[in-house]
């Protein structure tokens, strides 16, 4: 099973030209050991609780006493047999003693004095890491006789190079029950898309958000420009990774209970952590993330626990929690002008517009006919916003007509874009009125939004299965590029300007310096996959049905988590 649940572009100029290799030094060891110890403590607590529950679920006092008497009698019989066997075994061992004396096996398991005094490393899976001998350079290692070629290091450095004209494309992927984040490099001029590196994740990723601020990185100004990503998963925590570091073992920061060691120490003696929503961290799947581009240290998150939380990335703590929705909150979007206003969509069939500075004030709401899928502000007119729903409808609202009563709301226009859920959609930041919608019906549609309403430009099936992500390029040079991914686990980048219908509708809106570079030949760039290329391009109906079952299972798990 392979599936891509979310994608996100990284604008040009933010990625480091030469990403660095992960350095496992003393400070990093201490940080990882602390994180690992927290996870081991959680596992130990879960085991102890499970044993206590199993003991409490016994058959009663009478039954237990009978069982104890049977055990005692069986132990007596075994002890008699063992005494006889020990005598014969000791006679056989005497013959081997002379040969084994030189190995001193009798003291093989003895504890050293240093370990008795606490010097030894008892850190679980990382217990022996510090005792391993290593050298800064292979030249200093006496066991390595073949010296490194300097050209090999230079070649590896060149392979990792990211040019100023390259874009990064982030993809949250599930493959063979393993979850990871793939970092692609998209070379537009060369029509090339390839995986630069990937990051292993602890749980199924549901949403990703690119960050331009360093989080949890020592020796760096907290307000400097950086290249990070926040990942929301089925686990309630939000992990933040440095995209300019290759082969990372652990995230730079964890937003939530998993990253709060002090909170865990306080609750160590308490029962298993509650699933009840609180003001400090999420207790259910994180479904949406939104970074504030003006107040760069603020990150908003939405969860299946029905709450919206505001995080301070400088401290990696929750600054505020909001509970104005009555069902799962699945989508978020910051206003482009009023930077403290947040738009949120929920399964309670409403979209809310709230000022984060006034947590006690009831937000303005609009109502729709079914569960909300995604919400976005109009990037070319901040008075309007879009809401897509499970029934395949796109709503266009004017915030000036919204009230606190969702039943009284009325959309400027409605569009039946798809027969199934509009799982994702995007608005072009460069070309006004250019909208892309995608659905679980496996199609992607491009629309021209004018004063008279939306008009269909083109519809296309990219053979990615059920479409879960469709996003336009972030820069003017790649404004017509659309990244599409879905349930088959593949991602493609389509140059929409090579389509005749797109050129017909948007030629007058296209920047003049890019209009001359438009190619008439269709441009669809994907990643070469040996396994997929060896099979037929279209998958069997049975395989596609299995993928659909996997998607439904994920959705069902979210529903069970709420119950």
UniProtKB/TrEMBL annotation:
Region of interest called Disordered, as start-end residue ranges on this chain: 44-101, 259-278, 521-563
One GO term describing the cellular component: nucleus
InterPro entries cross-referenced by the UniProt entry: PWP1 (IPR044285), WD40/YVTN_repeat-like_dom_sf (IPR015943), WD40_PAC1 (IPR020472), WD40_repeat_CS (IPR019775), WD40_repeat_dom_sf (IPR036322), WD40_rpt (IPR001680)
Listed Basic residues bias regions: 74-87, 265-275
Entry keyword set: Phosphoprotein, Repeat, WD repeat
Signal peptide location: none
Pfam families: WD40
Domain of life: Eukaryota
GO biological process terms held by the UniProt record: rRNA processing
Alphabetical list of Gene3D superfamilies matching this protein: YVTN repeat-like/Quinoprotein amine dehydrogenase (2.130.10.10)
Residue spans of biased composition, Acidic residues class: 44-54, 92-101, 527-563
WD repeat ranges, renumbered to this chain: 279-321, 415-457
PANTHER family: PERIODIC TRYPTOPHAN PROTEIN 1, PERIODIC TRYPTOPHAN PROTEIN 1 HOMOLOG
Entry protein name: WD40-repeat-containing domain protein
Species this protein is from: Lasiosphaeria hispida
The organism's taxonomic lineage, starting at the top: Eukaryota, Fungi, Dikarya, Ascomycota, Pezizomycotina
């Amino acid at each position: 099973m392979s599936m891509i649940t979310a994608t996100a572009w990284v604008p040009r100029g933010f990625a480091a030209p030469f990403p660095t290799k992960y350095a496992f030094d003393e400070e990093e060891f201490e940080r990882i050991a602390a994180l690992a110890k927290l996870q081991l403590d959680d596992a130990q607590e879960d085991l102890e609780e499970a044993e206590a529950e199993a003991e409490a679920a016994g058959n009663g006092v009478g039954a237990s006493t009978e069982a104890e008497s049977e055990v005692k009698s069986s132990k007596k019989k075994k002890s008699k047999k063992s005494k006889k066997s020990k005598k014969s075994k000791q006679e056989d061992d005497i013959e081997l003693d002379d040969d084994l004396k030189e190995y001193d096996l009798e003291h093989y398991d003895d504890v050293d004095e240093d370990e008795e005094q606490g010097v030894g490393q008892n850190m679980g899976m990382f217990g022996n890491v510090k005792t391993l001998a290593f050298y800064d350079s292979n030249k200093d290692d006496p066991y390595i006789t073949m010296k490194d070629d300097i050209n090999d290091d230079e070649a590896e450095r060149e392979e990792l190079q990211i040019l100023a004209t390259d874009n990064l494309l982030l993809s949250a992927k599930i493959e063979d029950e393993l979850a990871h984040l793939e970092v692609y490099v998209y070379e537009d001029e060369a029509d090339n898309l390839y995986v630069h590196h990937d990051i292993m994740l602890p749980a199924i990723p549901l949403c990703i958000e690119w960050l331009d601020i360093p989080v949890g990185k020592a020796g760096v100004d907290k307000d400097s420009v950086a290249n990070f990503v926040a990942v929301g998963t089925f686990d309630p925590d939000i992990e933040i990774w440095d995209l300019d570091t290759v082969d990372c073992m652990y995230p730079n920061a964890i937003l939530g209970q998993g990253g709060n060691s002090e909170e865990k120490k306080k609750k160590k003696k308490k029962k298993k952590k509650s699933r009840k929503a609180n003001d400090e961290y999420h207790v259910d799947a994180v479904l949406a993330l939104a970074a504030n581009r003006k107040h760069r240290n603020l990150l908003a998150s939405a969860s299946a626990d029905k709450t919206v939380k505001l995080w301070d990335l400088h401290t990696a703590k929750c600054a505020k929690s909001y509970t104005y929705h009555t069902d799962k909150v699945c989508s978020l979007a910051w206003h482009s002008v009023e930077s403290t206003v947040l738009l949120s969509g929920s399964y309670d069939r409403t979209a809310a517009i709230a000022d984060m500075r006034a947590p006690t004030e009831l937000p303005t709401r609009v109502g729709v006919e079914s569960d909300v899928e995604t919400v976005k502000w109009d990037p070319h007119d901040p008075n309007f916003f879009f809401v897509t729903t499970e029934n395949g409808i796109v709503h266009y609202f004017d915030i000036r007509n919204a009230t606190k009563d969702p039943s009284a709301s009325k959309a400027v226009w409605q569009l039946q874009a798809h027969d199934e859920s509009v799982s994702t959609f995007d608005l072009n930041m460069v070309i006004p009125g250019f909208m892309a919608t995608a659905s679980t019906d496996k199609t992607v549609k491009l629309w021209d939004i004018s004063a008279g309403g939306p008009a269909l430009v083109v519809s296309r099936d990219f053979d990615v299965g059920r479409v879960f992500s469709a996003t336009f390029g972030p820069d003017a040079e790649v404004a017509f590029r659309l990244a599409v991914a879905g349930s088959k686990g593949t991602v493609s980048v389509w140059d929409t300007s090579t389509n005749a219908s797109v050129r017909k509708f948007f030629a007058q809106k296209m920047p003049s310096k890019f209009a001359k570079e438009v190619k008439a030949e269709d441009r669809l760039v994907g990643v070469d996959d040996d396994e997929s290329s060896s099979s037929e391009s279209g998958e069997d109906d049975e395989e596609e049905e299995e993928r659909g079952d996997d998607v439904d299972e994920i959705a069902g798990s979210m529903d069970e988590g709420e119950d």
